[in-house]
Amino acid sequence: QVQLVESGGGSVQPGGSLRLSCAASVSGLAFSNYILSWHRQAPGKERGLVATISGSGGITNYADSVKGRFTISRDNAKNTVSLQMNSLKPEDTAVYYCKALWGSRLYWGQGTQVTVSS
Fold first, then answer.
1. Pairwise CA distance, residues 5 & 62, whole Å
2. Which residue of 11, 62, 73, 90 could cross-link 115, Cys pair, CB 3.0 to 4.6 Å?
3. What tens digit of pLDDT does each residue of 2-21 get?
C-alpha cells in the first residue's frame, strides 16, 4: 500500500521555476521497487505523462514538451520524488499528479495545481 501526497504547486510567471515534491507512505513493498512518474492534467484535457524515473533513479524519461526544462529525481531513503520545473510556460498550467507503479499496483496522489501566468 502506498499513499502519495504532492506539494510545491503554486502560481509563477512565465520563465519562472517551481519544485514539486511527492512524499510517500509505504507499507509492504519497498519504495525503491516502484516506478515513479509525474503526470499533469489541464482543464478540458486528458491526463498525460510528464516524466518517469526507475526504481534506482538511474533511468528517466520525459515528454518532449518538457525535455531540457524539467528534471525528475527521487530519494529512496526519504521516500520522495521531485520534479524541478524551470523555464515554465503558460502551457505548463495544470494539476500535477505523482504516481507509483509496481506490476498491477498503481497509486495516485491527490494532485497539486501549477499556474503559469503573467
1. 21
2. 11
3. 999 999 999 999 999 999 99
